[in-house]
């Protein structure tokens, strides 16, 4: 199972390197179902892994002048606050059973993974159907107060499910800051890195025991996959891969629903 798990870490990196998105959303299912971590640990470790992968990709975009640092700060600070509030205050106090509906118990694990699976479906839809990448004009202007509110909401979602949410951030940067698409993608990676790593270090790292050897190994393999994927991406049609990966993520979302709500592992 460890071999399978680390192979999946490489695949996550490959997908990020080849198509620039989507792969990190597989981190939580791999941590939960392959390495058998519970929902709190899986989402916490995912924050670190997603943050490390996004930082590697974001620095690459920064070197190509595809990052707007001012926008990253304006959007990123509320996002950091959102993820920190959820990881530091909300997750630790969630009861094992969230509520009972008609005799059906909805546990903390079911709630967290159920919302995560819904996020996977939205991400898959974005990957399958959003073929034409439309950006702003590049003349940066900020839609206040919507852009900090969006940052806070995206940060809270990230904190709850441990996913980066790039498919939510990129359209927000285009619509609410008028960034052109390349800068929106690069800036989103920096925002994801900031909020994910901040949420982990200011929340989970202070409230739980961390297996540093494991998450550093997993993250390192993922980053190696990113580098390999970036090299292969010069010779492979990324758009076709993106659609195929979107369908795969859809299947994974259905798998999570079955495992958590029907089989109830």
SSE diagram, text form:
Blueprint: H1 2-19, H2 27-34, H3 39-63, H4 69-90, E1 97-101, E2 104-107, H5 108-129, H6 146-161, H7 166-177, H8 181-207, H9 212-232, H10 238-263
Antiparallel strand pairs: 1-2
Helix content: over 70%
Walk across the major sheet and give the strand order. 1-2
> In total, how many domains does the architecture comprise?
1
Euclidean distance between termini CA atoms: 17 Å
Query: Unreliable stretches, pLDDT < 50, 5 or more residues?
Result: none
Count of discrete alpha- or pi-helical segments spanning 4 or more residues: 10
Q: Mean pLDDT, nearest integer? A: 90
Coarse shape:
globular
What structural class should be given to the helix and strand makeup? mainly alpha
Computed CA radius of gyration, to the nearest angstrom: 18 Å
Order of helices and strands: HHHHEEHHHHHH
Describe the model.
There is one protein chain. This protein has 265 residues and is mainly α. The protein has one domain (2-263). Helix content is 74%, strand content 3%. The protein has helices spanning 2-19, 27-34, 39-63, 69-90, 108-129, 146-161, 166-177, 181-207, 212-232, 238-263, and strands at 97-101, 104-107. It has a two-stranded antiparallel ribbon with strand order 1-2. Helix 6 packs antiparallel against helix 7 (166-177). The protein is globular and about 55 Å long.
Question: Can I get a quick summary?
Answer:
This protein is mainly alpha-helical and 265 residues long. The protein contains ten helices and two strands; from the N terminus they run H-H-H-H-E-E-H-H-H-H-H-H. The chain is globular, with a radius of gyration of 18 Å.
